[in-house]
Design a protein that fits this description.
Blueprint: H1 2-15, H2 17-21, E1 46-51, H3 57-69, E2 74-79, H4 86-94, E3 105-107, E4 115-121, H5 124-127, E5 135-141, H6 153-171
Parallel strand pairs: 1-2, 1-4, 2-3, 4-5
Amino acid sequence: MNSQRDKNMGQCAKESEKANSRNEGLSVLEKDTETPKPNGQKIKPSVLFLCDGEEGYSLVAQSILNHKADSYFKGLCAFTSEVCNIASACQSLRQYNIACRDDHLRTIEAYQGQNVDFLIALSPSSVQSGKSLPRYTKFIPWDITQGGETSDRQITVKYINDQINYFLSVYLYR
């Protein structure tokens, strides 16, 4: 199973090599909004999207956030299952010409002991796994299943996009 995950992650990485090149040299889990960077700028607030991994929607949400507000937020994504369906996520993003950037996709365990500014749980199942969550300043629960299933990817991606627009209107444009 890990070889399939590695293969899928490699495919997404190839698709987004250009988009990732501007982030070279940054630590994946670099975080401290109060400490200035050496050049005097503050580090961007981090947003960790969490899903169960079945459809890879945390990768979709992180990629949409990066597409819209990469200069304002550091998008991260995690999943609670053993594997994450990256191929499905990348396919969903390709339909909208959004780069599939899986450079910050990790299991939730990889973020243990880390601090994030915003932890956004995309569905109830993502927090009902019983796994420990990283420390966060603000927890935001979404329900991309809208009380049901996420079988229609197009509707789910639209819902994620709408929620990100709302998130940006609240936390970026205030």
